[in-house]
Amino acid sequence: METLIKTIAVGFIGHKGSYLSSHWNKFDLFIIFAELMDYTFGFFNLHVEASHAIKPMRLISRVPSMRILVTILLETAPMLGNVLILYAFVIHIFGVIGVQMWAGKLRNRCFLGEDILTKYNVSLSPYFVPIFGGQSSFICSADDKGGGRFCSDVPPYQEDGKICTLAADEPIQAGQCVNWNMYYNVCRAGDHNPDLGAVNFDNIVYAWITIFQVVTLEGWTNIMYYVMDSYSFWSFVFFIFVTIMGSFIIMNVCAVIIATQFSENFARVTTEQHAGPLSFKNLFRKFVSFLKMMNNRVHPTKSSTHVKPTLHQVWIPFKEKFNILINTKLFNRIIIIAIFMTIVTMAIEHYNQPQELTRVLNVSNIIITIIFVVEMIIKLIALSWMYFADLDNSFDFVVVLISLWELGSQADGKLSVVRAFRVLRFVRLFHFLPYLKRQLLVLKRTIGEASTLCWLMLFVIFIFSIVGMHLFGCKFHFRSIDDETVDDRKNFDSLLWSMVTVFQILTQDDWNVVLYNAVAATSPWAAIYFIAIIVFGKNVLLNVLVGIVVDSFQARPSENIHQDCPRCPSLTCEAESSESPRTITGEYSVPATEPSRSNGSTSASEIPSPQTKNNSFTRFLNRIQKVLLWCQQHKDWSLYMLSPQNRLRRFCQRLISHKAFDHVILFFILLNCVTIAMERPSINPKSMERLILNASCCVFTAVFLIEMVIKVIALGLVIGKGSYCRSYWNLMDGFLVILSLTNFIITLVTSDKKNMLSILKVFRLLRTLRTLRMIKQTPKLKLAVKALVASAKPIGNIVLICCVLFFFFGILGVQLFKGKFFYCEGENTSNITNKAECLSANYSWVRKEYNFDNLPQALIALFVMYSKDGWMNIMYDGLDGVGVDQQPVKNYNEWMLIYFISFVVMSFFLLDMFIGVMVETFHVCQQQQKQSLQRGGNSRDKRKGREENYFRHYSLVRRRIYDLTTSRFLELFMTVIIFINVVLMALEHYNQPLYVEQMIEYSFYVFTVLLVLEIMLKVVAFGVLRFIKNSWNVLDIAIVLVSFIFIVFTVMNMEDTLPINPSILKITRVLRLAQVLKAKKIRVLLRTIAKTLSQVGNLCLLFMFFFFIYAALGVELFGNLECTPDYPCEGINQYANFKNFGMALLTLYKVCTGDNWSGILKDTLRPCRPNDKACPSYLWWASPICFATFVVMVHFVLANLVVAAVMQALEDSKEKRPKTESSDIMQQPQESPGEPVISSSAGTTEGVQL
């Protein structure tokens, strides 16, 4: 009907303004045809229902703001297509590598070496399965291969909780049993792959799915462990390279491209279409104007006060006094104290608290409520209707009314939760912190501008939910151990849980598990659905939010930006002062001496006469004056003992100013770092290695103590120009030396290894920061460090905002879930309903590691949710909570979804705030560095001008070869050959026929010959020097050399003697596909990646500093943690532990990527076993601090510094695009025979050659 009316009104087609002239009308017509097709198929009993997923899309054209947003996204599509091409190219390259190296490797299982059923009449599984259901597979490697797990590592068989040790032919005695697992001793390929068959490299399709999962950084370590078990321990190098290139570089390039393109299009479209729908801000402004009008009516002006003048004259002074009262500092301080008391009283509330504390909290709640009621009444009297013009006052009004309702009804249940909203009044204190207030304004602006994006995101989730219900509804059914059918919690059975599952996929928390279930329930093509959600939802729409945040930061006034980065140039002064502290100006000595002189003079002039005061007191003041005068005269003396002309001091000054001094100290610092890396708990205390490490520690302490003494003698300690304590580096060095001496003394005095003061030795790790002195030699590294230091203040403010959010949700979580995160652990708990029944059945009443029983535990759980790792499991525990001491029930309270999902949504904004801060500070610091290092020079362009017409003296044959090599025909021909070869390589798969293998091998030889011919033609056409100047040609030479090496190894049958599979050398041909990416728009991406790689190399040094410190700290704190079958771990395993420095680095990289780091944290928070003497007793507080600081610094700060580097590299690439495109000598324009050639060489006398 709508289409018919519009067609009659404006016409159907053929003129401007007709129905089909609008793309949105075309889309509506397409939906109508889809519905008609569904009805048509319905007559033939074919229920396709294709229109159900696209019917809701009509909403886009009906909402103007959403239509504008979708229009902007569609205009971003061309550049987005280039980004996706680059994205697919990277995944394809790594997928081909995976097929070449590990096809069929993940099928390896430990099979029975004997026929146990026939020989011993015992039925066993054909291969070893550690856990029923196949979700966790025991992948093995042959004994002659270099894998990390063999069949000899199969754990022993257990019977009734007892470990079996006997063989089948040995006599069985009482209490003994047969270890049947020892007969799983043959490692060979089976029929199944791990994770329900979804993870493997058997063909290119599964390889794409697997590499895509690795790039998303969810469950990638499990895939890496599979490959390490079956192939080689050193396979982690490949996966780390994939995650760095795919996730930290390519994915960030995609995010930056989408964010910047959206920002540019949004700025243009919003200027063209300024008028929009009625917003909440406009409604609030109208409401404020209405209140002003009401206020004027209630309180008219003096000209209209002829009615009842006496009442008005009495009321106005009374109101003015209350106005003065609410603006006084005392009133505000009382309210601030009440707010703090509110926070304190709600923060100390916890599960199973004493009754006395409960009564005290109730009384304090009444008192605080009365204070807020009085405040509200006073403000209502003073402001009348204008009280509601302020959103804060309106919010306070609602909270006070609910608090009164709670007190009146004596509610202990749901209404008590509303008290948690009082914490938001803490935001009032931000008005006294201007910089922090600016950060809040940026957050407010971001939320306001992203409101339409949130609606579009909800709309996208709704559409994908409907599609998921049609594809996977009621299909995620699996058998449990008791052969009962169990529905997976991550399902598409209803609209609610389908939307929750799609939202989970967008957050990428355990989305791979949903993928595995979908592939097992349907087919491998189900991966397309999940890839579409992640690409369009996560990589596109959520990256648009990044662009909105960056725009919000850049939209602030310019003077604020310069105030936000005041310390960008100061790092240079600090770094220079660390190398030559004597270059510091004397501005520090002025305030130290002049006040003392003035104080001395005033005290001398104001000395009272002996008639009024005692003469002894006067003499005492005179002595003080003499001491101050002596100190003023000896201010340049070191320690007031060594004059500037002292020989020892001058010798020390010459010593520290020599370059060799710094090199020697840096050498000892590096040696100290090596010894720190060698530390591990497993070293025998009586071994030679332990003695050497202890001796080296004493030597290093002595060396650094001598360095400190020499610098103090040369520079002075505190007073004087460029004294030792004037440099932050020297303060850190002195602090470390004092800590080392303290640790040395404690070690000598106490022999107790469990002494709490032994944790002081972990501060030795700060010595690694002294290597930051070398940043002066690398400007790009100095830029990264400057940006990191300059962002400390804004990052700290964002952390403070996050803390407020955490406090609010933490207190709210304690009110909602305290005492509900317990469960009964036993054999059969299906009939258990509460704690009493659990304990009566001799079961254990266990608390979840992440819970909300008190505020510290709630903050830990919220931080885990904030990092998006494991938040779904915490949410499920919250949904299942019934009550205090009650057994959980699945999905008991689904309304709690609002609490968890709202927190995750807010965390998206706050995480992007980190990105905005890093981008802004990095940009400002780089602009300052560019201004300081700006130089002029066009000599390079002049040299390029001389090279323009180098080919005009070629012979006829060479000129024809030149025309061929620069022609479009050769480029297209080689592109087609490359595509054919890549397609043939993608055809390789596990158990492939012989003819496929021969076809691929022959195509490899043909491709190598063609590539050699192309190189020879180009060498003849351009010459050797010009040929190697082009990086693409150097890549071609490398590919030819590697291809020849592979052919030699294959012909000589050296495949078995090499440590690596030589077939991996064939995959270098895939790199030729990069030449296809020489399109102009994709060149910007390639230049961005190239510039990013140069900067990321320096950023990796910063990563290594933090990784080194935390790896050594992890070995010190968690090196003794062990996992046993009776005490299993959730995150720590064979490849993720802190037993030595190397494994600690690999584990920290896993934590950096956010893959199951919450499981590692959970393992470190477990209570120590009774007989475990090596378990430190301070892990319950040291572990959260260690992991939280590492995740914040590396995952939230340094990783976002990479985003800032990518965004700046993109800006530089766009600025230099015209020059680079015109200077490519391999893309010279064709010269026709009759075209004049003009020489541009300087100094030539030749004119025009016809």
Automatic annotation (TrEMBL):
<feature type="domain" description="Ion transport">
    <location>
        <begin position="968"/>
        <end position="1216"/>
    </location>
</feature>
<feature type="transmembrane region" description="Helical">
    <location>
        <begin position="453"/>
        <end position="472"/>
    </location>
</feature>
<keyword id="KW-0406">Ion transport</keyword>
<dbReference type="GO" id="GO:0005891">
    <property type="term" value="C:voltage-gated calcium channel complex"/>
</dbReference>
<keyword id="KW-0107">Calcium channel</keyword>
<feature type="transmembrane region" description="Helical">
    <location>
        <begin position="526"/>
        <end position="550"/>
    </location>
</feature>
<keyword id="KW-0325">Glycoprotein</keyword>
<dbReference type="InterPro" id="IPR043203">
    <property type="entry name" value="VGCC_Ca_Na"/>
</dbReference>
<dbReference type="GO" id="GO:0045956">
    <property type="term" value="P:positive regulation of calcium ion-dependent exocytosis"/>
</dbReference>
<feature type="transmembrane region" description="Helical">
    <location>
        <begin position="1179"/>
        <end position="1207"/>
    </location>
</feature>
<dbReference type="InterPro" id="IPR005821">
    <property type="entry name" value="Ion_trans_dom"/>
</dbReference>
<feature type="transmembrane region" description="Helical">
    <location>
        <begin position="969"/>
        <end position="990"/>
    </location>
</feature>
<feature type="transmembrane region" description="Helical">
    <location>
        <begin position="897"/>
        <end position="919"/>
    </location>
</feature>
<feature type="compositionally biased region" description="Basic and acidic residues">
    <location>
        <begin position="1213"/>
        <end position="1222"/>
    </location>
</feature>
<feature type="binding site">
    <location>
        <position position="869"/>
    </location>
    <ligand>
        <name>Ca(2+)</name>
    </ligand>
</feature>
<feature type="transmembrane region" description="Helical">
    <location>
        <begin position="84"/>
        <end position="103"/>
    </location>
</feature>
<feature type="transmembrane region" description="Helical">
    <location>
        <begin position="795"/>
        <end position="817"/>
    </location>
</feature>
<feature type="transmembrane region" description="Helical">
    <location>
        <begin position="660"/>
        <end position="679"/>
    </location>
</feature>
<feature type="domain" description="Ion transport">
    <location>
        <begin position="329"/>
        <end position="555"/>
    </location>
</feature>
<feature type="transmembrane region" description="Helical">
    <location>
        <begin position="1098"/>
        <end position="1118"/>
    </location>
</feature>
<keyword id="KW-1133">Transmembrane helix</keyword>
<dbReference type="GO" id="GO:0046872">
    <property type="term" value="F:metal ion binding"/>
</dbReference>
<dbReference type="GO" id="GO:0043005">
    <property type="term" value="C:neuron projection"/>
</dbReference>
<dbReference type="GO" id="GO:0005248">
    <property type="term" value="F:voltage-gated sodium channel activity"/>
</dbReference>
<dbReference type="GO" id="GO:0086010">
    <property type="term" value="P:membrane depolarization during action potential"/>
</dbReference>
<feature type="transmembrane region" description="Helical">
    <location>
        <begin position="330"/>
        <end position="348"/>
    </location>
</feature>
<feature type="compositionally biased region" description="Polar residues">
    <location>
        <begin position="1238"/>
        <end position="1250"/>
    </location>
</feature>
<dbReference type="InterPro" id="IPR027359">
    <property type="entry name" value="Volt_channel_dom_sf"/>
</dbReference>
<keyword id="KW-0677">Repeat</keyword>
<keyword id="KW-0479">Metal-binding</keyword>
<feature type="transmembrane region" description="Helical">
    <location>
        <begin position="1002"/>
        <end position="1025"/>
    </location>
</feature>
<feature type="compositionally biased region" description="Polar residues">
    <location>
        <begin position="595"/>
        <end position="612"/>
    </location>
</feature>
<keyword id="KW-0812">Transmembrane</keyword>
<keyword id="KW-0813">Transport</keyword>
<feature type="transmembrane region" description="Helical">
    <location>
        <begin position="205"/>
        <end position="227"/>
    </location>
</feature>
<feature type="transmembrane region" description="Helical">
    <location>
        <begin position="691"/>
        <end position="719"/>
    </location>
</feature>
<comment type="similarity">
    <text>Belongs to the calcium channel alpha-1 subunit (TC 1.A.1.11) family.</text>
</comment>
<feature type="transmembrane region" description="Helical">
    <location>
        <begin position="233"/>
        <end position="258"/>
    </location>
</feature>
<feature type="transmembrane region" description="Helical">
    <location>
        <begin position="731"/>
        <end position="750"/>
    </location>
</feature>
<keyword id="KW-0472">Membrane</keyword>
<feature type="transmembrane region" description="Helical">
    <location>
        <begin position="360"/>
        <end position="378"/>
    </location>
</feature>
<protein>
    <recommendedName>
        <fullName>Ion transport domain-containing protein</fullName>
    </recommendedName>
</protein>
